[in-house]
Amino acid sequence: MSPDLKPGIAFEWTYVVPERSTVPQLYHDTAFCRDMPDVLATGYMVGLMELACTNGIMPYVDWPREQSVGVHVNFSHLAATPPGMSLQIRGKVTAVEGRRVKFWVEAWDGVDKITEGEHERMIILPEKFNARLDEKKARASAVA
Question: Residue 106 CB: number of other CB atoms within 10 A?
């Protein structure tokens, strides 16, 4: 992780809302969701905010040797967005505490502000992370 990764780093990311991101499409295997409004699902929106933060710190990590994983989200979903609209996502790094990176993120769909909130990511070494994951899978299969 670069020592240049510091609070105040700002970033922007644009993303077009795909059909697959709506509540009925994302949760097509859940009967009551198929009748819900055809708008950006909150779960997908949160994932987009995570991706924007990941993209925002890419110049400061030694990809792919270093990566980041989300560890905390706190977003408000303020307005509905139909598929096809373009999101403008803006964020900034608010704190760097060891391997933990904190963000403030907001997004607009061209008409409304659709979300704002906080996110935290941990910088990881995939080799170590995957080794722990393999151990967990082995423990899980032993109990099954």
Answer: 18
8 Å CB contact between 22 and 39: yes
Q: What is the pLDDT of residues 91-128, one digit of tens each?
A: 999 999 999 999 999 999 999 999 999 999 999 999 99
Structure tokens at 100: 């933990």
> Active-site positions?
42, 50, 77
Position 35, amino acid: D
The kind and range of the H/E element at 28 are none
Angle formed at CA 37 by CA 33 and CA 40, multiple of 5 degrees: 95
Show the beta-strand stretches assigned E in 35-128. 67-77, 86-97, 100-108, 113-124
Average pLDDT (13-29) is: 92
